[in-house]
Write a structure and sequence with these properties.
Layout lengths: L5 H10 L10 E2 L7 E7 L7 H12 L11 E4 L6 H16 L11 E7 L7 H16 L5 E6 L6 E7 L15 H15 L4 E2 L13 H4 L7 H14 L5 H10 L3 E4 L5 E4 L7 E2 L2 H4 L5 H8 L24 H6 L4 H24 L5 H54 L4 H6 L1 H18 L7 H43 L5 H5 L3
Parallel strand pairs: 1-7
Antiparallel strand pairs: 2-4, 3-5, 4-6, 5-6, 8-9, 9-10
Helix pairs in contact: 2-3, 4-5, 5-12, 12-16, 13-15, 13-16
Length: 504
C-alpha cells in the first residue's frame, strides 16, 4: 500500500474530516521551491554599525522589488526606521546586562530567505506565510519585518529579525543545526498552506520535529542556565577580584563549594548536587581562569548560550465527529480542523524524511522502534539492578572491614556480655554486613575493593549511556506510533500492538 500518492492521501484526509488544503505536494528539486536559509549579518568592513544595518535593510525594502513598499509587514517595529530601532535595543541590552561583544563578533541581525515555486503563490500570500514563519520562529520575542520580492520569476521573502530580544535582556543565539530547524519549520508552514517543499531527506536532520520558536520562553531555565545568569549578574557588578566575585555569588544565594586543586563549584538553589565552574560543564568562557580574566578586564563577559531544545511530541489527530457529538460547537470544529491539518503535515514530513513510501515500510519502522525501546528498557533495568547490587556489596564490604576488629575483640573476650553491651551497635553493623555479603556472594569469593570500584564505575557509565539511548528510543517510538496511528486513521486500519505501546 503506497502512502505518498498525493491524490489518494488527500482523498483519505477529506474522508476523515481533516479537510486539508487541495493537495500536499512534494517537489523533487530544480525550481526554487519553498527553500529557506538563515543568514547572520555582522558589521561590514570600513562601515559603522548603523551604516551596515541600513545597507542591508535598504536592499530588502527596495521599492522596485516590493511593489513600491506594499509588500512589507512588520512586528514590533516600523520597517522604515527598523535600523535605528534595532540599534536602540542593542544599546538598552548593554545598559541592562553590562555585556558587550567584540565589534567584529557581534551579530547585528539575522535574515531568513524564503523562496517559493513559481506560479504557486501570490505576493500577498507569500508575505503572510513569511510573517507566520517569522512569528513561529521567534515566538514573538524579537522585532522583525518581512519584505516580499517579486523581481524574479520565483517570489521570495527577506525576513530580518533583531538579534536582541524585545525585553533587551536576552539575545538570540545560533544553535547547532539551527538552519535545519528553520527549514523544517518553514516546510511545516508551507505544507499547512498547500505549498510545495523540496524532497531531500539528506538535507534534513534525522529525528524529531522541532523548531526554535517552540523552545524559547516555554520552560524555566535549567540549573546550569540559572548559574550562568547569576555569574553574568555578579560580573556585571565589577568585583575587585575572584574572591569578591565568590562573595557576590554567595550573596545571590549560590553556596560556594571548594574542592581539591582549587576546584570551585556552586550549589544552585533547589539543587542537591553542586555544579562545577568549568567550560566543559557551563560552556566556553566559564573556566575559573576565564572568570579571572573578565574581572581583570582582559576579556568580555562570557555569552550565555541557548539551552538545548526539548523534543516535541507529535500528537494523535482528533476524531472531530466524535467530539462534536459530545456537544462541541462550531468554534471547536474550526480549531480541530486546523490542529489535525498540522498533525498530518508533521506526518507527511516524517514519511518524507524517513523515505517511507509504503505502508509496510511504515509498519516495519514502527515495530522496530517499539522493539528497540522495550529492549533498551530491559537492559536499563538489568544495569540498574547490577549497579544497586554493586553499591550494596561495596557498602557491606566497607562496614564488614570497619567492624571486623570489634568482632575479633568480642571473640577474644569470649563473647563477654560486658563487651557486647559496650559495642552493641558496631557488632550489629558487622552482622548485618556479613549477612548482606553472604546473600549477594552466595558462596563466591569477595572481590577486591579496587575491582568493586571499577565495576561500579563501569556500570554507572553504562547506565548513563543507556539512559540517553532509552530517552531517545522512547521519543522515537512515541513519534512513530503517533504517525502510524494517524495514517491508520486515514486508511481505516484498526488495531496493532504499536498503538498499545504508546500507553506504556
Amino acid at each position: 500500500m503506497q502512502l505518498m500518492t498525493s491524490g489518494h492521501f488527500v482523498q483519505k484526509c477529506r474522508a476523515a474530516g481533516i479537510l486539508p488544503p487541495p493537495a500536499f505536494r512534494l517537489s523533487g528539486g530544480g525550481e526554487p521551491t519553498a527553500t529557506t536559509r538563515l543568514i547572520t549579518h555582522h558589521i561590514s568592513k570600513g562601515e559603522t554599525v548603523a551604516q551596515s544595518l541600513k545597507d542591508r535593510f535598504d536592499y530588502g525594502q527596495n521599492p522596485e522589488k516590493t511593489q513600491g513598499g506594499e509588500l512589507i509587514s512588520a512586528y514590533e517595529c516600523d520597517h522604515r526606521t527598523a535600523d535605528a530601532e534595532f540599534l536602540l535595543a542593542k544599546a538598552k541590552y548593554k545598559a541592562v546586562t553590562g555585556r558587550e561583544q567584540r565589534r567584529d563578533a557581534d551579530v547585528l541581525c539575522y535574515q531568513i530567505r524564503q523562496s517559493f515555486k513559481p506560479g504557486e503563490i501570490t505576493p500577498e500570500e507569500a508575505n503572510r506565510v513569511g510573517y507566520e514563519t517569522a512569528m513561529r520562529w521567534t515566538k514573538g520575542k524579537h522585532a522583525f519585518f518581512v519584505a516580499t520580492h517579486t523581481d524574479r520569476r520565483h517570489i521570495h521573502n527577506h525576513i530580518y529579525y533583531n538579534s536582541t530580544a524585545l525585553d533587551c535582556a536576552h539575545k538570540y543565539r545560533d544553535f547547532f543545526r539551527s538552519a535545519s530547524a528553520l527549514r523544517r519549520l518553514s516546510d511545516r508552514v508551507c505544507l499547512e498552506n498547500d505549498l510545495s517543499v523540496i524532497t531531500n531527506p539528506k538535507l534534513h536532520s534525522k529525528g524529531r520535529f522541532l523548531h526554535y520558536g517552540q523552545w524559547i520562553g516555554e520552560r524555566p531555565p535549567s540549573a546550569q542556565q540559572r548559574l550562568r545568569l547569576a555569574i553574568g549578574d555578579a560580573l556585571a557588578k565589577k568585583p575587585a577580584d575572584f574572591e569578591a566575585f565568590l562573595r557576590l555569588m554567595e550573596g545571590a544565594g549560590y553556596a560556594v563549594k571548594r574542592g581539591r586543586g582549587g576546584v570551585i563549584s556552586f550549589l544552585v538553589p533547589g539543587q542537591k548536587k553542586p555544579t562545577r565552574l568549568r567550560a566543559s560543564t557551563l560552556g566556553d568562557g566559564y573556566d575559573p581562569e576565564d572568570i579571572r580574566a573578565v574581572i581583570a578586564g582582559e576579556r568580555p563577559t562570557p555569552e550565555i548560550p541557548d539551552e538545548a531544545p526539548p523534543p516535541q511530541r507529535i500528537n494523535l489527530i482528533i476524531d472531530i465527529q466524535e467530539r462534536l457529538s459530545q456537544g462541541k460547537g462550531p468554534a471547536y470544529e474550526r480549531w480541530a480542523k486546523v490542529y489535525n491539518l498540522k498533525q498530518m503535515a508533521a506526518a507527511l514530513q516524517y514519511l518524507r524524511e524517513h523515505e517511507l513510501g509504503d505502508y509496510d515500510a511504515l509498519t516495519a519502522k514502527t515495530s522496530g522502534a517499539v522493539d528497540r525501546f522495550h529492549a533498551l528498557a530491559g537492559e536499563l533495568r538489568d544495569t540498574e539492578a547490577a549497579l544497586a547490587k554493586a553499591s550494596d556489596l561495596m557498602a557491606a564490604t566497607v562496614e564488614y572491614a570497619k567492624n571486623r576488629p570489634v568482632f575479633d575483640g568480642y571473640k577474644a573476650a569470649r563473647y563477654s556480655k560486658k563487651y557486647l553491651a559496650a559495642h552493641e551497635a558496631e557488632l550489629a553493623s558487622y552482622r548485618a554486613a556479613k549477612a548482606t555479603l553472604n546473600n549477594i556472594l552466595a558462596g563466591a569469593k569477595l572481590p577486591k575493593m579496587d575491582a568493586l570500584k571499577k565495576s561500579r564505575r563501569e556500570l554507572a557509565e553504562k547506565k548513563k549511556a543507556l539512559y540517553a539511548e532509552y530517552r531517545k528510543a522512547q521519543q522515537d517510538m512515541r513519534e512513530a506510533v503517533a504517525i502510524k496511528a494517524n495514517i491508520d486513521h486515514l486508511l481505516g486500519v484498526t488495531g496493532g500492538r504499536e498503538n498499545k505501546a504508546q500507553e506504556r
